[in-house]
Amino acid sequence: METIRQNGKIILHSNDGTSIKMIFKNLTGRNFQGQEYMEYIRHIAIGDMGLSPGIIEHCRDGKIIGKGTIPNV
Questions:
Q1: What does the pLDDT look like over 13-36, one tens digit per residue?
Q2: How many CB atoms are closer than 10 A to CB 59?
Q3: What are the beta bridge partners of residue 34?
Q4: Phi, psi (5° rounding) for residue 65?
Q5: How many domains does the chain have?
Q6: What backbone phi and psi angles, to 5 degrees, belong to 23?
Q7: Tell me: the pLDDT tens digits for 1-10?
């Protein structure tokens, strides 16, 4: 299972092997940049997903495989 966690809390999880990796890249600015990224963070990450500015972790089977930062927009 893959998860995205913030402050030790699982925000999203999936077993499909693709969606969590893609969403993590979206959240950390690898798939979007500039104004589009800021709007994604403001409306989707913070508004819909309930994330807050700060560190997020991409985990696979309970082990951290990546870290990123949600900016304060």
A1: 999 999 999 999 999 999 989 999
A2: 19
A3: none
A4: -115, -5
A5: 1
A6: -65, -40
A7: 999 999 999 9
Residues in contact with 5: Cβ distance below 8 Å, sequence separation at least 6, in sequence order: 11, 56, 57, 59
**How buried is 45 (Cβ within 10 angstroms: 0-12 exposed, 13-18 middle, 19+ buried)?**
buried
Cβ proximity of 21 and 55 under 8 Å: no
Show the domain range for 27.
2-70
Q: Residue 8: what residue type?
A: G
The DSSP call for residue 7 is T
Q: State how far the alpha carbon of 40 is from the alpha carbons of 10, 34, 60, 64, in Å.
A: 20, 10, 24, 24
